[in-house]
Structures are given as C-alpha cells and as structure tokens.
Amino acid sequence: MKKLNKPDVEVFTDGSARDGVFFLGGGILVIEKEERHSLSTAAGRYGSSYRAELMALKKALSWLQEREKEGTINLYTDSQSLVRRLEEGPTLTKTSLENEMWTLIHQICSRNATNLHIQWIPGHCGIAGNDEADH
User: Fold this and answer.
1) CA distance 25 to 123
2) What is the dihedral of CA 28, 114, 34, 60, to 10 degrees?
3) Which CATH class is domain 9-134?
4) 35 DSSP assignment
5) pLDDT of res. 11
6) Which of 7, 113, 125, 130 has its CA 20 to 30 A from that of 13?
7) Which helix (H) or strand (E) holds 45?
8) pTM for the full model?
9) H or E stretch covering 54
C-alpha cells in the first residue's frame, strides 16, 4: 500500500448487505486529531453491496461538507468497485446517488486549503480503522 502523509482527517467507510442484496447499511469512522466519530447510514432494504459502499461514502462526504473540514483528508474504502468508479470521473455518472457523491467531492475540494485523497485499502485484514467502520 502506498504510504500517504499523516492527514488532518482520516475517514474509513464500509458498506454491507446481507447476502449481497438485503438490508443495506454503511459504517463510517472519522479520526481527527484525538477525536473519533462513528457514523452509520441505512442504505435501503434491497440493493447491492456497491450501493451500500456508495451510501457510506456519501454519508462521510456529507459529514465532512457540513462541518467544513479543511486540510488534508484521507478517505479509505475497501470497495475496489467504488474506487474504479471514482477513477472513471464524474462524466460517466450513472445514477443520482453517484451525481450527489461527485457534487459533494467538488464542494469539499473547492475549499482553498482542502486536499481530498480517496484510497483503496484491503478489507478484513487487521487495519484498525477499517475494522471499526465495519462493525
């Protein structure tokens, strides 16, 4: 894994769905200095694991936007499909949820002193922040 500099804010997101399609939800852990904030979001009764991951990311981005967080923000997800979708950029947005995600990313990144890094991390392998977001 590429080593990133110590950020001002670290965010871990994780989505889940029972049997991959039922009772979707997301967990988020925000670490800022010595403070830890645990958040969660419902993501619908039916859907996909990707939708659950996307809802967790959107909840984290909304939280950051509402609090006008600045500085270096490292956001970690264990969803390879979500990272691949982000790499495609906003012009290939397929859903209103993805459009909302890109709007939040733009709002956060348009602040003068904000750098947002989104990084894939492997899931279920002992990365403390990811394990905490997973619960």
Assistant:
1) 16
2) -10
3) alpha beta
4) E
5) 96
6) 113
7) strand 35-46
8) 0.87
9) helix 49-66
